Amino acid sequence: MRKIFLVIMLCLFCAIARAQVPTENSLLWEITGPGLSKPSYLFGTIHLICPTDFSLSDSLKSTLSRTQQVALEMDMDDPGMMAGMMKTMNMAAGNELKKLVTEQEYQRLDRFFKDSVHVGLAMFERAKPFVLMGPLFSSVLDCQPESYEMRLVEMAGKQKSEVIGIETLEEQMAIFDTIPYKDQAKMLLTLIDSLPSARKEFKTLVALYKAQNINELYRMTLKSEFGMEGNEEVMLFARNRKWVPRIGRIATEKPTFFAVGAAHLGGEKGVIALLRKEGYRVRAMK
Length: 286
Fold this sequence. Notes:
Layout: H1 2-20, E1 28-32, E2 40-45, H2 58-65, E3 69-72, H3 81-88, H4 103-116, H5 133-141, H6 148-158, E4 162-165, H7 169-178, H8 181-193, H9 195-210, H10 214-223, H11 232-253, E5 256-261, H12 271-277, E6 281-285
Parallel strand pairs: 2-5, 3-4, 3-5
Antiparallel strand pairs: 1-2, 1-6
């Protein structure tokens, strides 16, 4: 009887967990529930995208206008952000990129940066290798990318809404100290050696994003060989768990428009499921 009871309880737990996972295809969600006098909203972004694929719906603009502040993963409106980035972008313990790769690999990276980014690696010698992924995205996208976060900052400014961060720059940059620097350097090399594959993968991600299919986007992001595979816990799951109580506290203070990477929304460990687990009602919007 005890075994039967445990099996029943396990099945019930699994059923409840599945019920919390979002099933609708939507990037925009309304948050209501305990302690919230007015709704807040959650939007999934894609950090960089070609202008031809960039779009802000009327529903999103209307929703943003009903809030009093915008909360991004980091405070992109902070005038001290660049200074903070300079302080936190370097590897610990005097590590250098030349120590992480072979001489041949270093030369290959340096040549690629000079050809594609038009700067040599010397100025990034001590930077965490993941930081170097940013300048390479233009090569992957083959366009001058647009940023949802920066557009939201502009819109917030026009309606005189404050922009805040769910986490600090220091917290986000510290993530890249938990992933071995050699592994990060290997990802850099994989990216420049596999540009056609990277472009194909990103094209699929963009198609899923435009279809607002957050669960497939989540699953594909986890399998990506260009940064996420093997790093899910530190880059997604742990951050989601940390964000949820912060989102609840921020939304309690004033109606807020939250915008985070769309890969954080789907799945049993995603922000939507975790908010629902805490008793919030999270409803898809069109």
